[in-house]
Design goal:
It is built from 8 helices and 6 strands, in the order ααβαββααβαβαβα. It is of the alpha/beta class and 217 residues long. A 6-stranded mixed β-sheet has the order 3-2-1-4-5-6, sandwiched between helices. Helix 3 packs parallel to helix 8.
């Protein structure tokens, strides 16, 4: 794709300002290679059933978060999770490809299996250089089956065990809680004070973007 084609595509997507930033920072249009970044962050997007009314804003927020993270030297990937985690976009994707994949993301009606998602994300970061970070975006609490209190308690214990494993491999954990999230759990789950942000009643897209400014330098 030549510069003219790139310009036309970016104009349609409303991304010319981002293209200018990427060109200035990396020396070419909108397709920075992962080797240009010193650090890596995976956005972990809750796609359980309760996210259905929040997903549109969460998608836009994830895109804004990724753009700001790249400007701070982070390659960005996105994992969707509910019952099981799955990779939606990788740190190797160009900005255009990343954004197009994220814009297609939707809830799948499942539960909120935080533990398995974190272990899966930590495995993706195993070979990454520099700072290694995950950022959960969720509106619920850990759950991997059933509505009884013991099911939730077990899911929390599993999540905290996964947290200990991730920390042991050098992964920092951040979290953005949307309306309905278990704030007390998220505050205990993140790895540093200030790494959790609650957006109950606040604009989701703007709040997610602001979270990227807290990434470790």
């Amino acid at each position: 794709m030549n510069d003219t084609d790139n310009s036309g595509m970016l104009s349609k997507l409303g991304m010319n300002s981002l293209a200018d930033k990427m060109r200035k920072k990396f020396g070419y249009d909108i397709a920075p290679k992962k080797s240009c970044f010193s650090n890596t962050v995976w956005i972990l997007m809750d796609c359980s059933g309760s996210m259905s009314t929040k997903m549109a804003d969460a998608r836009l927020g994830a895109i804004d978060y990724a753009n700001l993270a790249r400007e701070s030297g982070y390659a960005v990937g996105l994992i969707a999770f509910s019952d099981v985690p799955r990779i939606v976009a990788t740190p190797d994707d160009t900005v255009i490809v990343f954004d197009s994949k994220v814009r297609m993301l939707s809830d799948d009606g499942g539960l909120t299996n935080v533990a398995e998602c974190l272990l899966f994300a930590a495995a993706q970061l195993k070979q990454a250089m520099g700072k290694r970070v995950v950022c959960f975006v969720t509106d619920g609490m850990p759950n991997c089956g059933g509505c009884e209190p013991e099911c939730y308690n077990k899911a929390k214990r599993d999540a905290m065990a996964a947290r200990a494993s991730a920390i042991g491999s050098g992964v920092d954990i951040m979290a953005v809680g949307l309306a309905g999230a278990d704030h007390h759990f998220l505050n205990a789950f993140v790895t540093q004070r200030g790494f959790s942000k609650m957006l109950s009643g606040s604009p989701v897209q703007q709040g997610l973007a602001e979270m990227a400014k807290l990434l470790p330098p």
